[in-house]
Each structure stands twice: as C-alpha cells, then as structure tokens.
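We emphasize that the prediction below concerns an isolated chain of 457 residues; any contacts that depend on oligomerization or on bound cofactors are therefore not represented. The input was used exactly as deposited, without trimming of termini.
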Amino acid sequence: MKSHLPKVLHPICGRPMLAYVIDAAREATGNKPLVVYSPAVAKVCEVFADEADFALQDEPRGTADALRAALDALPADATEIAVLSGDVPLIEVGSIAAVVEARRRHATPMALAAVEAEDASGYGRVVLAGDDTVARVVEEKDATDDERAITLYNGGLYAFDVAWLRAALPRLQPSPTTGELYLTGLVELARADGTPALPVHEPADADWEYEFQGVNDREDLAAVTPLIQYERVLAPLMLAGVTLEDPQTTWIDATVEVAEDVTIEPNVVLRGATRIGRDTIIRSGSQIVDSTIGERCTIWASVIEGSTVGHDVRIGPFSHLRSGCEVGDGAEIGNFAEMKQVRFGARSKQHHFSYLGDAEIGDDVNIGAGTITANFDGHAKHRTVIGDRAFIGSDTILRAPVTIGDGAVTGAGSVVTRDVPAGKLAVGVPARIRERSRPPGSGEPAESGEPETGGTK
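Result of the prediction step, given as a token string:
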C-alpha cells in the first residue's frame, strides 16, 4: 500500500478493511475470531481489542507459520478451525459456513474454497485429482503452461481438523526459494496421509468471483470500496425506508444510522458516528460527520461536525457547525453562519454572516447579521452567555467573557465589552447601558436619541 498504516487497517466506508472479515468470521462460526499479526502490524490489536483475540507471529515466515501461531493460541479443546485472509473484505458468511460444513460432512482433515473464473491470473491454481479431490495447489510463478490454463483457483478460505493440523504442520518443509512455510503445502500432506483435501465449489446463491476479490494495493482498494458502499450500506438503507435520490453521488459510511422516511438528496456525505432522525431531509451539498440530527430537520448545503441537533431544526444553506455544538429544538441557523462549542437554545435564530464561538445562547434569541463573539484574547478562549429572548443587533461584537441578560438588546454596530443586565439596551463603541423604551420588533419608534437595534431575523 506504500503506507505507514497496515494494509488491513485501511478504511472502507468508515471501517478498517479487517472489520468486515472479522464480522463475517464471527457470524459464521459463533466464536470470537483470532487474528494473527506480526510486530509490524501490532496496531490491529489496539483497533480490534474488543472484537478479536490475537496471536503473535513474531517473525513472518509464511502463511503456514502464521497458522502455527494461531494453533499455539487456540484453546486446548478446539476441534476445528476456519482460516480466512484479512485482506478479502467482501467475503460472505454463507461462504465461510459452506466450507466449514463441507469439511464436516465429508470427514476430511482439510477443505478449501475453489473458485472458478474466466481469468485466474495471479492466483494459485487448484489442480484436481481424478477423484475430484485436490492434488495440489500451484502458484502461478511455479506453474506450467498447462497449469496456468486452469481456471480454478485457490480462494484462500480453509477449514481444518485441528488434531490433524497440529500433527501436519511440523512436517511441512520450507520453500527452497524463500525459506517460508506455505499453507498450501498442507494439501500434499493430506493426500500423502490418504485423506485428500476437499475442494468446495461456489454455492448456488453465492458469487465467489465477487467475494474473493483481494486487496493488494490502493487500486484494489478503490475497486472494492464502491461495492461495499452499495451492497452493505446504501441498498440496505433503501430497503429499510430511506430515500436516496441519487445513490451514485451519495456517500454514507457503514457506521452511520439513518431512520425511516429520511430523504437524502444528491451529493451528500455522511460519515463516522452520525445518526439521522426520522422525516429529516438532508439536502444537496451537505457533509455531516460524527453528529446526531433529530427528527423533521432540514439540513441544506452545510457542514456539521461532532455536534448534536434537536428536532424541527433548519440549518443552511452554507452553515458550518464545528465540534461541540448543541442546537435546541426549532432553532434556525442560516446563510454563512458558523458556530463552535456553542449551546444554541430552542427556537433561537442565527442568520447571515455571523460567528459564535465558546458561547451559551438561550431560548428565543435573535442573532443579527454580522454578529461575532470575540472569544480569543490572544492567549485563552473565553465564553459568552446570552440569556433567553435577547436580541442581538446587526454587526454586534461581543468581547468575551461577557454575559447578555434575559431580554436584553444590543444596538447595531455595538462593541459590548461588559455585561448587559437583563432587559437593558447596550449601544455604541464601546457599548453603554441604557434603558429600553420598547421591545424590539414592536414597530414603535424609539425614544429620541435612542438608536435602532438593527437586528435581522
């Protein structure tokens, strides 16, 4: 992969590649999977600490040596084992079960998935004996021209009798070319023991050419990603009652949850631990990451990160909620409005070119166009608190730390540097505190000498 990140940890639809293999193995066998790792990829133990057990292959010496490490970590009473490749993320539960059940049914020590393909280039060919058991598996580089013409290849999915495997592994000889121990060498040992390996062919309801696509580089990763995106994420959502107006331009991570009757327009991205509530509309151009959106909301051409949004909220177009925001029910956040680490109260409104940072906004508050909380003094961040029903006039600068009391008003263009008591008016640069003579929006004229507030809704 030409990467510092282990191959099996490269993400597909928001999850590491290996997660899909672990899920399939656990569901097929009913047991916690055992992941064999080397020191170079020890990070897998941290990522999957709660989902798998681990066996260390201290020095990678081939696939059979990896299997030896797995056997050393198995419980003593284990009687059978299924072996999967960590870089085949499209593998299905039914295919694993088919190989395991076939080995049991035929009482053979070893079974492997034999995949038929029009072009088996790059894979080890499965050479069958006259009785349709496996004579050997030959790697392409070692194959003759006749063997390369074989269209049956080794899928890398196996089932073994553990007792036989424990006895057979020490008998394997290393490759004279590489010095490694190859798992496929067990095929010839099984035949020598008079109990040849069983080839398991594609079940009627499976597509093994699809399932056994391995990921060896980033080109392969790009090839399997849209398959998982559609088959494992988008199609199940649509069947569960989610409207995707254009699945080809929609990206949803496998970790996202979307309720029934949600509508998602084209060119939408939903990532991470995102949750979308029922009857919500996510309109074109929106990106939502690690956030919870309530019911009956409309999100339009906006970015929401690490935030929680209540019910009946309208956001956008072109809003940006940065991490740590909580938006109350019925709120409205509009054009080019940005907030960060803000609790925004129910039914409050923030429209038109404004920034709120490190703030607590009460219920039923109006934030006028161009309002800014000046939360950073060059050394530290400070909080702004705005009480319920406050009315912040256009182009107000609130220099934190500052508190605007319940029902207080700021005039247009004011620079507020000190607290404004509840019900009072702050106007000017710097703002001076005055008595209010009328409620904002009443349509009554201001007293002589009192400037208009200049708020917007």
